[in-house]
Give the backbone structure.
Amino acid sequence: MIRSVVRGNGAALPRRIMKNADFEGMVETSDEWIVQRTGIRQRHVAADDETTASLGEAAARAALDSAGMTPADIDLIILATSTPNNTFPATAVEIQNRLGMHHGFAFDMQAVCSGFVYAVATADLYIRGGLAKRVLVIGSETFSRILDWSDRSTCVLFGDGAGALVLEAEEGAGAITDRGVLAASLRSDGVHKDKLFVDGGPSTTGTVGHLRMEGREVFKHAVGMITDVIEATFGQAGITAEDLDWFVPHQANKRIIDASAKKLGIAEEKVVVTVDLHGNTSAASVPLALSVAVADGRIKKGDLVLLEAMGGGFTWGAVLLRW
Ligand code: UT7
């Protein structure tokens, strides 16, 4: 059976770092509140010349380098983003052009914070369906552009950045010991759409709009949704939490990560946490966390890795893969 195996990964972050203390003169908040409620200590914020396309391109180039490939080797680019450079064309196509790639195809995927998990699951289907052999999966966001910088309940939470993976088709035995994507489970439910949304859009206001969130409501649903979808993924793969080497969750809030890991019985030392460094970077958060844990030597070839995300929509999902 065909498996989608990770050949390389990369990341890119804006030059400017904004610490929690930098908000203290802007809105009524404190480093102490932000750290205690979220675990966030800093986030990167894009300058005018840093966009979803430029960050996505940089992460893609880093992933190609680590895979020992060039854009000529890639058939498909899937970009997970909710902050595209333009309403259309897809920012994935802009990245394709920036990479000097004029073959194959590229498209954006919009599932907010779950975008990267959706995109990996989708890339796996394209590979297993024979429509692509090598796929660049990118998560890139510039949420700083859609934040209401006067709203303390949201502006302190988000950051900008990008991460990418190169997936390649490889023949596997159809066993849990195979490398590559082993199981995935995706969910959405639009009944929750008003709990986390952007109050603008081309077909409604004709404006870009700003992010609005009922944080407490999102928090209330997050742990249950995350753990349900992970248990479904474990069920598909026939594994338990103990079999995992690494848990790489969406980085929105340390308290949500801790509560989910605890409920699932995933040991604390297996959990990759980068929310302190990046804040919530939406679709970029999982590949950015992967890049940190690969760079510091934690995630190694052959490790069993669980990715998970939950966000606006609501959307939520999990992917199990062997690195
Ligand atoms: O990535 C997509 C998924 N998104 C998430 O997972 C976010 C989920 N939600 C959360 O992470 C948390 O709900 C927040 C971090 C957003 C908020 O934490 P909380 O413990 O749920 O706080 P809260 O909303 O219940 O607010 C507690 C208090 C409120 O004051 P009152 O009403 O108790 O007087 C807020 O007004 O904290 C206040 N507050 C702040 N205080 C200082 C809200 N934001 C701030 C702030 N600084 N930045």
The chain has two domains: 2-171, 180-322. Residues 273 and 289 are 7 Å apart (CA to CA). DSSP finds nine helices and 13 strands in the chain. The longest strand covers residues 160-171.
